[in-house]
Design brief:
Elements: E1 18-22, H1 28-39, E2 43-49, H2 61-64, E3 74-75, H3 78-82, E4 87-90, H4 94-107, E5 110-113, H5 123-129, E6 134-137, H6 143-158, E7 164-171, H7 181-194, H8 198-201, E8 202-203, E9 218-224, E10 230-238, E11 241-249, H9 253-266, E12 272-274, H10 276-279
Parallel strand pairs: 1-2, 1-4, 2-3, 4-5, 5-6, 6-12, 7-9, 8-9
Antiparallel strand pairs: 7-10, 10-11
Helix pairs in contact: 1-9, 6-7
């Protein structure tokens, strides 16, 4: 990644560290990303942004977080911040993410997108931006979850339709959607393993006299309560045996760690759209 000479400060006694910008600094994920980048020996926090009018704008990010001054001022100008970045970590809103993608393309820096709720019409602008920059986008940045997705597809491919598939997920009481995005990722993986479309076999919301389970169905069940960070099970239930694949998240920082790993992985790669499969070495590179 080519940058102006004054945009990097080498770590004392060590190699140059990647310049990382975090957008949406005041959000739950923004704060976690700042912590993870600050603790990293391979990266340094180069800038943080917030929306115009936010009370943090113009203040030192350290002060905003109740810590000693960090020497980095929160800005509402993403152009200024992204211009000096090797990578941008973005868990904001679809509208903001599209704007950030255009700026990252101009700066030729890595854009890691953990933003959810992107609509089909949002994808062409991201594809256009990816002609000039590396974009890593995933609905879940956890390395463990992405490995579970791969294993789910493998097991579904190996087992016949006589094994019923059920995806069980649990989250905190404040989560507003069900099934979770991760549960749907797992369902998609199971369906892909069987060579079918998830929409054609998905089964949800059982209540009352539902009748027997449809052959080949992929079921979903959701639990909401307390402060559960995230638990996902994929159950393959056959006659006389069950295979249960499970991932349990106990700390939301795993998503921030995965995002930083994706950013460091993307630096120096060819422009294109990538996923966590690629970061983990499980996917083919995008077509030229």
């Amino acid at each position: 990644m080519t940058e102006p000479a004054d945009t990097h400060v080498p770590a004392p006694g060590g190699p140059e560290r990647a310049a990382i910008v975090v957008t949406g600094a005041s959000g739950r994920m923004g704060r976690m990303l700042i912590d993870i980048v600050t603790e990293s020996a391979e990266a340094r926090l180069a800038g943080v942004t917030e929306r115009p009018g936010h009370p943090w704008v113009g203040q030192d990010i350290g002060t905003c977080l109740g810590r000693p001054a960090a020497g980095i001022t929160v800005t509402d100008d993403p152009v200024e911040a992204i211009a000096i970045a090797d990578a941008v970590l973005d868990f904001t809103t679809p509208r903001a993410t599209l704007a950030h993608a255009a700026l990252a393309a101009q700066a030729h820096c890595v854009h890691v997108i953990g933003t959810t709720g992107l609509a089909p019409e949002d994808l062409p602008p991201l594809a256009a931006a990816a002609r000039h920059a590396v974009i890593v986008r995933a609905g879940n940045m956890s390395l463990g979850v992405n490995l579970l997705v791969e294993i789910t597809a493998l097991v579904a491919r190996a087992l016949g339709p006589e094994f019923d598939i059920e995806v069980l997920e649990a989250h905190h009481r404040h989560k507003v959607d069900a099934p979770s995005g991760t549960a749907l990722m797992l369902g998609e993986a199971a369906a892909a393993g069987r060579g079918v479309a998830l929409d054609a076999v998905s089964e949800r919301g059982r209540d009352g006299i539902t009748g027997a389970r449809a052959p080949g169905a992929i079921g979903f069940a959701s639990l909401r309560g307390g402060d559960i960070v995230g638990e996902h099970d994929v159950v393959f239930a056959g006659a006389g045996e069950r295979i249960i694949l499970r991932h349990v998240a106990t700390d939301r920082a795993i998503f921030a760690r995965g995002a930083l790993r994706a950013a460091l992985w993307g630096i120096g790669r060819k422009p294109g759209q990538y996923t966590m499969r690629d970061v983990l070495g499980l996917g083919a590179p995008p077509a030229e």
